[in-house]
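Title: Comparing notes on inverse folding

I've been comparing how different people in this forum approach sequence design from structure. To keep things fair, I'm posting one structure and asking everyone to reply with a full sequence. Here's the target:
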């Protein structure tokens, strides 16, 4: 039997979740799992629905009667509820998928009401029973045909009470380059756009090829999809080994109790930095951490817990989830949840996260008297305040037991013994400490306040650096020593570290004071010649290694006055607006200094917001202590470090660079101070997992020869000096099968990551010619379909692309078009098949498919080509049959191109633009979409001319006109909107 998607993975998923066994499923291992069998399999043809209906209305009607006494008494009322739900499904085209999902979720969680009570009184309507899960109906089906904008057939759909809550896409387990990422890409890029109504009630989506498993929410970019683990024990979170491991994880995530918990307590709708509404689902470590807090509070025996989740792995959202679930838990009788943050962070990350997520009943206070008043008045809300307010707290401020305190950056409670004061003020409260860094055993106060002896290693939950890298929650960290002659010598470095023993968490002013105490070190650090030399190197390094990739940088200087010194020097190399100093000033500072450099809270927020915009001219932020903690800027990739910091503060600072961002593979620390001359001394932690947290970028240079050798071994005996199509064809023939192509892609991917990380280092020079050749071969054999092989077939990096375009020597591929492919030629080849023609037809089809990369019709055709190739390689069809099948595919491609041209003529440019604006609409977008589109249409029609898309002047004029039209509505700064609108104009005008 030939293995494929349906007889292995699809049958496996249905069997695991429902126990239903297809007759062809004997190829699977028997499952030993006893749970997860609450889903009932119903074949798609047996579901009572039309192809354009996503709700199983009969099942939903019965559930409404079953769960609502008022509807049971008058079943016709169920139709009124279903009418309201249908209206939300239909509204997706006007309000966008995320808003529609948010509106539908309120109904699913029982937060909406109807006038079905006595005297038309509004009463809550239950669509799902969250208390007695057996009261709900759980259905799983496969190959569900859905029609909206076009017909699509998702592999797996899960329904609760007739409502589609999960969509799963499955891929073949046979081809190495095919992974769950390809399925996820299909959900995000194809299904959510073609059949958005199916995703309006969605809880989550999943994808698997049977070897690994990933999940994500609606409109979640691929980089934020992730694995699901059952627990964080080290022996259970090893790398997936196969179908059995996937079964465990999938059953755990998709069992009804877990899904409904995520729906009720762990689904957040938040506003991103572009003011767009987004849906955020928990990563498994956030889910586990928050639930452990809730379970400990419900158990009531142990009144504390310490949670260490590595920097950047989502600690802020863990606190939001925990607070939300604690407030939703009826057994806790409306508890008070107190969120305590660091003294400088109140209006930044944590409170910003709560506010953006629009959590109910949140109050923020900076005053101890107000905090005391809130607690004494027995306020039952989520209160956000600051740790150091407890210095003045009175004993027994509130003795109630259902008060839960969550302390951010718990290691700072050692300052002034705040832990004991908190315990005295709230003697019966639960105290949970959260930290992004491991707590050293020397920090006895922190363990006393939060650590429980009942917890393994003193931690209620731990998620280490290695865990976060493995799961793709954060990026690796590399340091790059530069200008070793400007580093501090060992004597001065020891002096600096000694001074830091009592200064673990310096403010801007503390940094000034420390430098004054060590005048000898300050004189060395701020010597104009040294600073000039460092800034010249920063400018060179940034232009070569950071800016080409679209990333930004932070410069950390010894003190506030050094910030100004660096800024003035940097202005010699970059425009003034390219860098901003972010420091605080004091009453003792000279007026001139304050007037020029003072940055208040609102100004700091604007600087951070501007820094996060890719299109903004701001490239550098210069600091000494501010923004080293609680600063979340994924676009920040490089930290230029010239300051004496170590341990916790150093770790927090360097982790500013480890956040996920498109095409970002690692965070980089360029060390001018010499901190990492002795990395072990700079980062001293008891926990063994911290020993390899940051590695020297130069170590990658040692890997380069081996990686280059591995990539070239796929082409032994091939003459790499052979130019033109002959050279390209020889290389392609060496990796003719999918298996060989994928093996090459895997080796080239590893090589490209190292190349992109090191470029433009001189160490690469001897390898330039070979690397360019490999890059061109890689680009030429990459699958035509954009969602095939996401794991191995990556978009080429910026430096690799530049290198290819710099000197193209291989493959005049456009010559292929001289071999005209029209209906007559195809018929002639079909009637007189010659295997020699196969390669020509293949290459022409690949080129045609790439031209229409985003079009679902051409994507299907390219998948047919992939299947044909696979059959030919496996000997399932003869070479003559292969040519004939290629001819049929070529005919279908010609027809698809004709249909596409006709469709473009039918679809008016204005209709296309209107569709785009509605999809990208945010709270900031003016309501008058029709008027915006008309303005763009009018102005573009005036300046366009035939063939403008092929001239630089034409493109420039159209872009200028589009910016002008968007400026009128203050939308000109939304780069994503501009780019998408411009693409539409290129296609439709």
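Reply #1:
Here's my take.
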């Amino acid at each position: 039997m030939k293995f494929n998607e349906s007889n292995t993975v699809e049958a496996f998923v249905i069997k695991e979740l429902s126990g239903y066994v297809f007759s062809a499923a004997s190829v699977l291992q028997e499952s030993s799992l006893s749970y997860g069998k609450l889903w009932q399999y119903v074949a798609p043809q047996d579901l009572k629905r039309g192809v354009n209906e996503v709700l199983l209305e009969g099942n939903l009607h019965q559930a409404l009667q079953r769960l609502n006494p008022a509807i049971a008494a008058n079943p016709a009322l169920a139709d009124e509820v279903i009418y309201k739900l249908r209206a939300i499904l239909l509204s997706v085209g006007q309000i966008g998928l995320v808003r529609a999902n948010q509106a539908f979720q309120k109904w699913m969680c029982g937060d909406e009401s109807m006038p079905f009570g006595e005297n038309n009184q509004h009463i809550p309507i239950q669509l799902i029973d969250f208390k007695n899960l057996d009261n709900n109906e759980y259905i799983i089906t496969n190959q569900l045909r859905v029609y909206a904008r076009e017909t699509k057939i998702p592999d797996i759909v899960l329904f609760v009470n007739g409502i589609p809550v999960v969509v799963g896409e499955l891929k073949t387990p046979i081809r190495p380059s095919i992974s769950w990422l390809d399925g996820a890409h299909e959900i995000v890029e194809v299904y959510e756009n073609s059949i958005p109504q199916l995703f309006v009630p969605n809880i989550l989506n999943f994808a698997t090829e049977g070897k690994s498993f990933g999940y994500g929410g609606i409109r979640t970019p691929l980089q934020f999809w992730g694995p699901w683990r059952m627990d964080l024990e080290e022996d259970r979170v090893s790398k997936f080994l196969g179908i059995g491991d996937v079964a465990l994880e999938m059953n755990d995530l998709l069992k009804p109790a877990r899904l409904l918990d995520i729906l009720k307590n762990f689904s957040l709708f938040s506003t991103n930095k572009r003011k767009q509404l987004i849906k955020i689902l928990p990563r498994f470590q956030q889910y586990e951490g928050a639930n452990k807090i809730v379970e400990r509070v419900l158990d009531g025996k142990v009144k504390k817990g310490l949670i260490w989740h590595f920097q950047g792995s989502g600690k802020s959202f863990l606190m939001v989830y925990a607070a939300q679930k604690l407030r939703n838990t009826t057994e806790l009788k409306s508890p008070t949840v107190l969120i305590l943050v660091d003294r400088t962070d109140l209006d930044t990350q944590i409170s910003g996260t709560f506010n953006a997520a629009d959590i109910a009943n949140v109050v923020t206070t900076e005053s101890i008297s107000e905090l005391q008043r809130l607690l004494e008045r027995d306020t039952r809300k989520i209160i956000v305040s600051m740790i150091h307010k407890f210095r003045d707290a009175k004993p027994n401020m509130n003795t109630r037991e259902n008060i839960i305190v969550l302390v951010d950056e718990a290691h700072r409670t050692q300052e002034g013994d705040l832990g004991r004061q908190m315990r005295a003020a709230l003697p019966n409260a639960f105290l949970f400490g959260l930290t992004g860094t491991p707590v050293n055993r020397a920090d006895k106060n922190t363990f006393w306040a939060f650590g429980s002896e009942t917890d393994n290693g003193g931690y209620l939950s731990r998620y280490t650096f290695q865990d976060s890298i493995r799961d793709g929650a954060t990026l690796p960290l590399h340091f790059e020593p530069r200008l070793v002659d400007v580093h501090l010598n060992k004597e001065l470095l020891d002096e600096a570290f000694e001074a830091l023993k009592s200064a673990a968490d310096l403010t801007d002013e503390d940094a000034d004071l420390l430098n004054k105490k060590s005048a000898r070190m300050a004189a060395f650090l701020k010597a104009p010649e040294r600073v000039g030399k460092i800034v010249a190197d920063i400018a060179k390094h940034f232009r070569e290694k950071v800016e080409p990739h679209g990333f930004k940088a932070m410069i950390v200087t010894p003190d506030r006055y050094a910030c100004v010194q660096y800024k003035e020097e940097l202005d010699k190399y970059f425009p003034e607006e390219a860098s901003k100093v972010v420091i605080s000033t004091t009453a003792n500072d000279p007026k001139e200094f304050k007037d020029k450099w003072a940055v208040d809270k609102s100004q700091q927020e604007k600087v951070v917001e501007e820094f996060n915009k890719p299109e903004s001219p701001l490239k550098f932020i210069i600091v000494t202590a501010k923004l080293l903690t609680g600063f979340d800027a994924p676009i920040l990739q490089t930290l230029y470090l010239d300051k004496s910091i170590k341990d916790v503060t150093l770790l927090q600072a360097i982790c500013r660079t480890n956040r996920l961002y498109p095409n970002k593979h690692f965070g980089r620390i360029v060390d001018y101070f010499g901190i990492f001359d002795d990395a072990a001394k700079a980062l001293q932690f008891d926990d063994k997992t911290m020993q390899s947290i940051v590695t020297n970028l130069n170590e990658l240079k040692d890997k380069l020869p081996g990686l280059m050798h591995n990539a070239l071994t796929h082409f032994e005996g091939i003459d790499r000096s052979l130019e033109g199509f002959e050279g390209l064809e020889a290389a392609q023939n060496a990796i003719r099968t999918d298996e060989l192509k994928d093996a090459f892609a895997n080796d080239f991917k590893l090589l490209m990551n190292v190349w992109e990380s090191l470029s433009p280092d001189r160490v690469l020079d001897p390898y330039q010619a070979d690397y360019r050749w490999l890059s061109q071969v890689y680009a030429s054999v990459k699958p035509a379909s954009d969602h095939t092989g996401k794991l191995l077939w990556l978009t080429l990096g910026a430096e690799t692309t530049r290198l290819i375009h710099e000197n193209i020597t291989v493959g005049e591929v456009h010559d292929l078009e001289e071999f005209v492919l029209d209906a007559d030629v195809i018929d002639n080849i079909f009637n007189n098949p010659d295997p020699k023609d196969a390669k020509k037809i293949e290459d022409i089809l690949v080129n045609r498919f790439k031209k229409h990369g985003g079009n679902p019709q051409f994507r299907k055709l390219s998948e047919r080509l992939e299947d044909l190739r696979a059959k030919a390689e496996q000997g399932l069809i003869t070479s003559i049959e292969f040519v004939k099948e290629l001819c049929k595919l070529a005919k279908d491609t010609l027809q698809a191109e004709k249909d596409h041209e006709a469709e473009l003529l039918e679809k008016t440019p204005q209709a296309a633009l209107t569709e785009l604006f509605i999809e990208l609409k945010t709270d900031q977008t003016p309501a008058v979409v029709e008027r915006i589109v008309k303005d763009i249409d009018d102005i573009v029609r005036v300046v366009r001319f035939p063939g403008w898309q092929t001239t630089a002047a034409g493109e420039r004029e159209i872009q200028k006109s589009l910016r002008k039209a968007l400026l009128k509505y203050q939308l000109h700064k939304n780069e994503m909107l501009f780019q998408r609108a411009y693409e539409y104009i290129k296609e439709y005008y």
